[in-house]
Design a protein that fits this description.
CATH superfamily: Gcn5-related N-acetyltransferase (GNAT)
Helix content: 10-25%
Structural class: alpha+beta
Distance between the termini: 69 Å
CATH class: Alpha Beta
Largest sheet: 6 strands, mixed
Number of strands: 6
Number of domains: 1
CATH topology: Aminopeptidase
Strand order of the largest sheet: 1-2-3-4-5-6
Length: 116
């Protein structure tokens, strides 16, 4: 997908995850499920040695840019991805919001209709 300062972010579809690599070493990943219209982030992990080095941010920013390029929305089930988007509102337009279901009509003969 993209390379930054010796780090590359790649899609590994066999493992259903995006990975941040440095050389052949995987430093972090974001697991996902994908449909034609939606990219669902389920879990993000960064190797402990690489935490607090911006690896998670690089991973999320790059994968969200990828989602925008291919024209899909995202569903951030992963708390890290959800929090990152909340702190970067310029990506909020990518977040999928399910349509609100209408309340079902009341059935005839409900308790509200009882004669007292």
């Amino acid at each position: 997908m993209d390379t930054f300062d010796g780090y590359s972010v790649v899609d590994n579809p066999e493992r259903r995850r995006f990975e941040v690599r440095r050389g052949r070493r995987v430093l972090g990943w974001a697991a996902y499920e994908q449909t034609a219209e939606l990219l669902v982030f389920t879990h993000t992990e960064v190797q402990p040695r690489w935490e607090h080095h911006g690896i998670g941010s690089l991973l999320v920013r790059t994968t969200l840019d990828h989602a925008r390029r291919i024209g899909v929305q995202v569903l951030p089930m992963c708390p890290f991805v959800r929090g990152w988007i909340e702190r970067h509102p310029d990506y909020a337009d990518l977040v999928y919001h399910p349509p609100h279901a209408a309340a079902p009509p009341a059935s005839p003969g409900t308790a509200d209709d009882a004669v007292v």
